[in-house]
Amino acid sequence: MIKTKPLHIEDYLETKEDIREFLKDMAENSTAEEFISSLNTVAKAKGMKDIAVKMGVSRTSLYKSLAGNGNPHYKTIDKLLRALGCKLAVV
Q: In degrees, to the nearest 5, what angle opens at C-alpha 72 toward C-alphas 71 and 76?
C-alpha cells in the first residue's frame, strides 16, 4: 500500500512570484470562499503575525477575518494583498 502525505501548499510559496501566481490562479478559478482560504494559506506561509503588523491589525483579528466562517471586508483584503506585495486588478 502506498502511503501519502497531505499537500501543504504553504510549503511551496517561497517567493513573491510564487504567491502572485498562486493567488492569481485562485482568483481566476475558485469561489470567493476558496479565494479567502487561499489568502489565509498565504498569510500563514508568510507569518500571520508579521502580515498583521504590516496591515496594522491584530493577529487575532486577521485570523478571524480569514477563518472559514469569516467574511473580510474589501479594505481588509486590500491591506492583506498589499502586505503580501500584491494588488487587486480587474482585467
A: 180
DSSP H stretches of helix in 30-90:
32-46, 48-55, 59-66, 74-83
Tell me which residue of 29, 72, 66, 31 sits closest to 46, measured CA to CA. Answer: 66
Give the rounded distance of the alpha carbon of 1 from its chain centre. Answer: 35
Query: Model pTM?
Result: 0.87
| Residue 35 near residue 26 (C-beta atoms within 8 A) | yes
Q: What digits encode the pLDDT tens for the residues 31-49?
A: 999 999 999 999 999 999 9
Does residue 26 register a pLDDT over 90? yes
* Length reported for the chain: 91
Nearest to 85 by CA among 37, 50, 60: 50
d(Cα 66, Cα 62) in Å, to the nearest integer? 6
